[in-house]
Amino acid sequence: MITGPTWSQKLRDEIGKAVIGQDAVIERLLVALLANGHVLLEGMPGLAKTLLIKSLGTALGVQFERIQFTPDLLPSDVVGTMVFSPKDGAFTPHRGPIFANLVLADEINRAPAKVQSALLEAMQERQVTIGGHTHLLPKPFFVMATQNPVEQEGTYPLPEAQTDRFLFKLLVDYPTATEESLMMQRWGQVTRQPALEAVANGAELLELRGEVDKVHLSPAVQAYILALVRATRALAEPAAGKKRYLTFGASPRASLALYQAAKALAWLRGLDYVTPTLVQDIAPDVLRHRVGLTYESEAEEITSDQLIAQVIKQTPVPEV
Fold first, then answer.
1. How buried is residue 56: exposed, middle or buried, by Cβ count under 10 Å (0-12/13-18/19+)?
2. pLDDT for res 114
3. I need a labelling partner for 249 at 20 to 30 A (CA). Which of 95, 123, 295, 308 fits?
4. Do 40 and 174 share a domain, yes or no?
5. 5, 9, 204, 244 from 1: Cα distances, Å
6. pLDDT < 50 regions, the chain
7. Could you tell me if residue 202 is inside a domain?
8. If DSSP codes are grouped into helix, strand and coil, which group holds residue 169?
């Protein structure tokens, strides 16, 4: 039987051939795979976001497709379209790149809303509609998207309905000086490029999700998850003499995401039960994109992560 730490380590070792550092981000990506969730990665250019996701697809041994989002992209470029055949005068469906196990939506905020919305049905229902007919997507199916936080010209911010469908929003930071020095030593020569191999497969991943389902989550921890999510909604409620920090709190989808992600994280770390510490560890990644800051919060340079940290600090922790 494969254990969480063993499965995690073999994928980390293979991804490490191409990506140095980013251990926390890689762990979250593996959690998302186990929890059947999509991921949004945000970071400055050149931080290996695209390389990381591509390396994950190779190491996982699944079909990988990359879609470069641009302002002139059309929904049919993502999901596919009906193609006319002159021989028999019939229309046949031509499947787009969305029909893959792992889809990289690169710079997703560069495409207009009609293209972004083409992903909605695929991400939530695991199916797309082409020419009035519904086509199921392969299993497993994940969308991992990237976006640049600094460039605003020619971009289309993701609406709340779209971001809420991502299990995590991960912030990719710069590598340490030691990691960056190691990068130069390892790949300073142009001819030296990393070659990765598949060390897992999609069928194995689907089987491991059954092991994640066996992880115990007590009623006390479930109540703790609910309290955290509902506390974000309390910050969005107007009250006399009290400053309003959020325009809206996290949706019920956040409760489900935190529940599933905490169990996946516990299994990945070799535990058979979920602790409040694990919930606190993963809560910012689940909640930061599911709350809306007020103008006052933005003017005071208060971030969603700071408000989530405040919620975690003020919510009573159950004894497990």
1. buried
2. 84
3. 123
4. yes
5. 12, 15, 11, 50
6. none
7. no
8. strand
pLDDT at 27: 94
CATH number for the domain harbouring residue 309: 1.10.8.80
* Nearest residue to 124 via CA among 256, 315, 258, 231: 256
Both 93 and 173 in one domain: the answer is: yes
DSSP 172-214: E-PPPHHHHHHHHHHH-STT----------HHHHHHHHHHHHT
Which structural domain, as residue segments, surrounds residue 157? 4-187
Q: Assess whether 228 and 178 both reside in one domain.
A: no
Distance between CA atoms of 251 and 232, rounded to whole angstroms?
9
Residue 201 is assigned to a structural domain of this protein: no
The terminus-to-terminus CA distance of the chain in angstroms comes to 28
- ∠92-95-98 over CA atoms, to 5°? 160
8 A C-beta contact, residue 158 and residue 116: yes
pLDDT single digits (tens) 70-116: 888 888 888 888 787 787 777 777 888 899 999 999 888 888 888 88
CB atoms within 10 A of CB 126: 14
The model's pTM is 0.91
Number of domains in the chain: 2
Residue 273: predicted pLDDT: 93
